[in-house]
Amino acid sequence: MVRLRSILLFLVLFESFGSIIAEEEEQIEQFSEALLLRPLPDRKVLAHFHFESKVPPTRTHGSHHHLFPKSIYQLVHKFRVREMELSFTQGRWNYGRWGGYDPISSRNAKPPGVELWATFDVPQHQVDTSWRNLTHALSGLFCASINFLESSTAYSAPLWSFKSFAANIRYGTLPREAVCTENLTPWLKLLPCRDKAGLSALMDRPSIYRGFYHSQRLHLVSNEFDLAAASSGMVLAQTLTVVLQPVTLGSGMTSSVGSIQQPSWSLSSLFGRKVSGSCVLSNASNVYVQLEPNLVSELKTISETQQQSDIENLISQAWSDMSFEMSHSAVREIKEVYGFQKESSLLYEFSLANFSDSRPFDLEFRWKRPVTWSSQLAPLQASRFLMGSGNERGAIAISLKSVGRSGYAKSSVNEEGRCSLRVDVFQVVPWYVKVYYHTLKVFLDERLHSLADVIERTNVSPSEDKVSPGLIEIALRLPCDVHSVILTLEFDKGFLHIDEYPPDANQGFDIPSALIRFPEIKTKMHLFEDKSACKSPILSKLQEESPVLWYTEVLLVPLTTPDFSMPYNVITITCTVFALYFGSLLNALRRRVEEEERLLKTTKASGLIGVLLSKLSTKLRGKPLEPPSSSSSSSSKVSYKLILRVILVAGIAAAWQYFFG
User: Fold this and answer.
1) Going by C-beta distance under 8 Å and a sequence separation of 6 or more, which residues neighbour residue 609?
2) Residue 393's beta-bridge partner residues?
3) CA 442, CA 446: separation in Å to the nearest integer?
């Protein structure tokens, strides 16, 4: 009996000790790092870095942190930021080749330049002040021109495009902001190990910035100010998405059908460096290699036709060994449980726990046969262009074309049993592009339709000259079998003051990218839910549902530009005329006659010796003596010339003042 009591007491103590450890783990800071590599159909490689830092709420953990960046913590508490996203992007995401229906493209494909949006936990009348202060702080923190977004003409207040019916949200973008290493270095300083250890050590500046696409993103979520709910503190996610052209490790092979083999690559060939182990402060450091669903289907089809084996055997490693090989064996293979496509994607996980400086990690991926496939696309491909000519009027057109897959909208069926597709359009235009919103037209399959038949709701905020930009949000309800949709809006081009033109005014003015959103079509990876998957933040993020997003091109609008050389020409000729006029006038007024006569007499007295010497020299040379010229005649000529010059300059100045003054 005593023995049974002791066993029960031990079990109770063990459970209580385990619960205490679990609570302590929830109340400590956490940091994790991961890298996802994906071969792309156009012979490129996608590298997606994911760093996540978590900190418990201040009221339970205090304000002193070991891993979470102090600068971000101060921003949150000083400006009461509830959620914020900042991205620096160079290049444009190729939705047609790199995919548009997956979690990576929906969350990390951003418009060129700088994009910033934030929500604040402040009263409505203090939102603009908090936004201005936040832009100045982020500008100094990331060495960028984010402070240009403080002007009321540079930001807007969307209603539902980013956060559903968020009242305290502000959005701004700088399409022409240049992204360079000065922006990446402060971003890396927010990491506990910076770029000295772990996966961040792979971020070689020349390797990253010579890529086809580069986007560094910072997403912050904080609920410390929500006292009613159970607060989870702050979560800071830093992602870097790069599309690189790998240096071919082996000679390129060509199959009999003419398809070129994908280039083999390794970490050292992509980034010029190897990974010398994980960051000692990270809870998890993993590298993932992802194969898209279409690629997995193509590899299985090729292996099935050549080996004539059944599907069950193809799911094993036999088909992968015939198509490609990797230098390291994966810790585990993660396969989707089910998905929208007939095939699901595949993830290979590699851990950096057993690697160090003496044994660095350099994953090599080598293809054995040519393979061609295509990435998953969004239900509608979006593009935007300008119509019209001249510097007075024009029109903006947004085109949506179907990819021929009606299965995307299977769940979007209305009460009448008709299949429909919900599409949200978000567009911000500068104040000098004066859009006439009543000219909105919608064409379905090249036929004009009534706005009441296709538009569910709109949010329009007209622009005000030199005060605020124009904003339009449109919620469209389209039939699933639609092939093409075109939206047009007419506008007039405004006039700017000469001080409002940028240095490169003749290049044109940018209209920021429009955002196309499919709120009813969610994308996520259906991974097998085990404890290890839940511990990996990047896998948890891939399993979260997110709507499909598509950013259009940045439009370049030419405006009426004055001839900036004319002010320079006017200034130079005016200064020249006034210099001649006042110079001659001052010379005539300040000349002293008595001193000139005294100087003339002294020259006459001293000139007798010179005359005798000249006569002697002429006699010795045998030449006739020339009579000296009278000084009076020369002085009269000089005075006449001076008077004529003064009169001429005065006449030119008077005529200039009369005609151009």
Assistant:
1) none
2) 492
3) 9
